[in-house]
Design a protein that fits this description.
The protein is mostly helical. The protein has one domain: Tetracycline Repressor, domain 2. 75% of the residues lie in helices and 0% in strands. It contains 10 helices and no strands. The longest helix is centred in the middle third of the chain and has 36 residues.
Length: 204
């Protein structure tokens, strides 16, 4: 059964395809309207302009990934495995979604940077809360050892931020297997730093 997409989703899907084809800078609202099969007026009903469309495209990626992170955090795996999966997927979930238009990312981030930075804090805070929940669960089970849960959660996120699309070059995003290998090594080291014996063994 096909799930009916909203007009906003149709417009954002069209935007993602065009960013892969032309890049954000060359893409116009007329292009988006034609690709989405809607009028330009319809786009302005849902979005303030081209920058808002681009910002919403980024926001959709983050929201989709955060929904998946919430599912991973609630799985029936051990708390250390859940935290490992969350830290890895917060990066790979983003990277795999933007690969088709990675060449356009620099243009997009440049255009929406001030407003994106405002939203990025809300994205970050939500992930801090989720990861802190896992840390507290692990500490109560005697798996993790640390002083300040929220501060520890922030440090884990800041460490893995080095691998998210905003921080990587286009060439690096195109080398996803290498990025994934480096990410997994980083996460293993971070987990070992939390005092998890099983993770310490993996990092040796």
């Amino acid at each position: 059964m096909e799930i009916r997409r909203t007009t906003q989703e149709v417009i954002l899907d069209a935007t993602d395809r065009l960013m892969g084809r032309y890049g954000f800078r060359k893409m116009t609202m007329e292009d988006i309207a034609k690709e989405a099969g809607v009028s330009k007026r319809t786009i302005y009903v849902h979005f303030a302009g081209k920058e808002d469309v681009g910002l919403s495209s980024i926001g959709r990626v983050v929201q989709q990934v955060q929904d998946e992170l919430a599912d991973l955090a609630q799985s029936d795996k051990t708390v250390s495995d859940r935290l490992t999966a969350v830290l890895i997927h917060r990066v790979l979930g983003r990277l795999t979604r933007v690969q088709d238009y990675s060449q356009s990312l620099d243009e997009l981030f440049e255009a929406v940077r001030p407003k994106y930075l405002e939203r990025r804090k809300a994205f970050f805070d939500k992930e801090v809360e989720l990861i802190n929940g896992l840390l507290e669960a692990g500490r109560s089970e005697g798996v993790f050892f640390f002083e300040d849960g929220p501060a520890c959660a922030k440090m884990l996120l800041l460490a893995t931020n080095a691998f998210i699309p905003y921080s990587l070059s286009v060439r690096e995003i195109g080398e996803l297997p290498r990025v994934e290998q480096n990410l997994r090594t980083m996460v293993a080291l971070l987990m070992a730093g939390l005092g998890c014996p099983k993770c310490t063994e993996k990092s040796k």
